[in-house]
Amino acid sequence: MTLSTLDxxxxxxxxxxxxxxxANVVFTGSGSEYFRLWVxxxxxxxxxLGVYSAWAxxxxxxxxxxNTQLLGGSFDYIASPARVLAGRxxxxxxxxxxxxxSYKSTAAGLLALAALAAVGPWAALLGYRFxxxxxxxxxxxxxxxxSVFDAYVQLLPVFAIWATAxxxxxVFLSLDHPSSNWIYAIVGVPSALWPWMHHQFxxxxxxxxxxxxxxGSFRPALKExxxxxxxxxxxxxxxxxxxxxxxxxxxxxxxxxxxxxxxLAIAALGLAIYAAVWPWxxxxxxxxxxxxxxxxxxxxxxxxxxxxxxxxxxxxxPLLFVTGGLYWPYAMIxxxxxxxxxxxxxxxxxxxxxxxxxxxxGFSAHDMSNEADAFPVEIGW
Amino acid sequence: MVxxxxxxxxxxxxxxxxxxxxxxxxxxxxxxxxxxxxxxxGSEHSYDMCGVSVSAPLRAAPCLIRLPHGQTIEIQQSARLxxxxxxxxxxxxxxxxxxxSSPAMAFALLFLIWACVFGYSAVLPAISDSIVFQLPRNAxxxxxxxxxxxxxxxxxxxxxxxxxxxxxxxxxxxxxxxAGGPHDPVEIVFRRARVGEGINAxxxxxxxxxxxxxxxxxxxxxxxxxxxxxxxxxxxxxHILRKSFQAAGVIAAAxxxxxxYSGVASMSASWLAVMHYSRINELExxxxxxxxLTRSGMAPDGLAKFLRRLQSLQGANTARSDVLSSHPDLVxxxxxxxxxxxRSR
Lengths: 381, 345
Prior knowledge:
The complex is a heterodimer.
Chain A: E1 22-27, H1 31-47, H2 53-66, E2 68-70, E3 73-77, H3 81-104, H4 106-134, E4 135-137, E5 140-144, H5 148-174, H6 181-207, E6 209-211, E7 214-218, H7 222-255, H8 263-292, E8 293-295, E9 298-302, H9 306-322, H10 328-341, E10 343-346, H11 351-356
Helix pairs in contact in A: 1-2, 1-10, 2-3, 3-4, 4-5, 5-6, 6-7, 7-8, 8-9, 9-10
Chain B: E1 9-15, E2 23-30, E3 33-38, E4 44-48, E5 53-54, E6 63-66, E7 72-75, H1 79-87, H2 94-100, H3 102-132, H4 137-154, E8 156-158, H5 163-178, E9 187-193, E10 201-204, E11 208-212, H6 213-218, H7 221-236, H8 239-258, H9 263-295, H10 302-314, H11 330-344
Parallel strand pairs in B: 9-11
Antiparallel strand pairs in B: 1-2, 1-7, 2-3, 3-4, 5-6, 6-7, 8-9, 10-11
Helix pairs in contact in B: 3-8, 5-7, 7-9, 7-10, 8-9, 9-11, 10-11
């Protein structure tokens, strides 16, 4: 598929003469162009003490959206920066209230934590609604059809578990001689349930994703989520153990003394490995989600070679360190290009015809205030 | 600039905003208005440019022309289109103009690097200093009491040092504190480490220095006072609080620059930066110690002696990893202190 097909519209938008049932996602973002945007965004955000971050976010999101093309049409991100800013101020106020409450007393802190978990599903719903309303493809915005009730039924357990870790930490701190077994509970409970929480969130999002009259669906894939997280853990732990032992061996070989091991050096190594493994996990989960979700008659197909991925990761991580972080925007573009390169949209009939026959849902893009949402600001970061 | 009629016609897709249906259209843009003709039906609409917004030009992304009532026209980006829009007086947003200008971008990049370096080396320390030195004393005392209480519960035991030894050290320490004019009173408290030898002393917020028995047992009086002078430096310069404010600033700035992908990446950068601040604090406290010991008429080389002994105790076991360490290398610290002493003579 090429863009030049837009020059002869009315024929086939896919640029194929025969009807086609699949189209690749094309990402056209460029590292040097995004680098410029990143410089301006960072500079202004720093100098306005964070106020510009809302405009920066919208500019960045619209850069990535407009450079993502599917079926000859680009995506777009049309959020109002003022609303993004309002949402950020709100989140900051909540965080501040929580901080003050936990500083005052343990009881006030626990109460504030419970309050945060209780508003969690509502905030997640508003954030998701906002994001979808701001995301446009072929002139039409996406929509979230979840009610507040849906959000609470599906997400309240997630937020309740999310709150257990800080809850247990608070209890732990208030004890005089706590047993070290507490650490297992604090770290273990949320870690063991994290894939479930993530899965629950994605299920909520994809089930309530709407595009025109098309509704999203999501086939539960909990086993795959756990497998992906387990594999990522192995990818993370194994090189760490091998790396630490190699350093110790080299140290002993060169100095003749045993390496007692600096916790900081181990942490740095862990960080570098994390930087490479985290994108792998994201990629793996992307393909699991793709495989199990659909919207109307459309499905998404992810075909990625992990060899290409490891090459990208091995190039990006050292370059980030060497350039003192200036390579960041290039890495972001390279990573997004790679992540989107294997994605395609599939339908059982001719795609162009199928897309052209999608009916509207009565809502208009560019008119977000029209929606019956009580609170049209972006909650989240 | 005069364009021939054929050059000013662009083909694109019109979306009505209600459905994803692509209507093929021909678009003619002129100064103040835009004319849209349906390719299939030949029907034509004209719009005043006042109600129309044109997306910022990007290198490869299509140009999006947003018409009134939620309609959008998507046209493939080209140099011809950008040039024509410019000729018709359609200006890109200011940031897109900055993006397109290489000199402006070079300036912005240098400015960003300068802002990060200058903010990190001068602005952030200055801001945290001004906050820290204006913080009410009782807030600091309350924080210090809480820290000490937590440490007592977890890591510390009452001192087993003889009372007269304690009071002897207290007296000598007060001489050290009062040298060079009146200041806030600073107290030392004695404790024993629950685990390990505890060859250490450390400052807690609220003008208190905790001395562990292990230090007094390991080091002689002069050396202990050298260490206490170093800790007094941390107290006077309010290093603990200053470091936490500096850390907060660095974390916020790193989240701005690198936070869009992974919080962990920006946290790691912050951590390296905070370690650097920490090493600067140590050197500052060393410098203060030499100064204060000299002023109070005590042996100025107590700290250096102690560090050298510590070094031989640790041996070559510690790998040199300056960038990742909260304290500067012992060898460097000793030679710096010796330089300071020889200069003050």
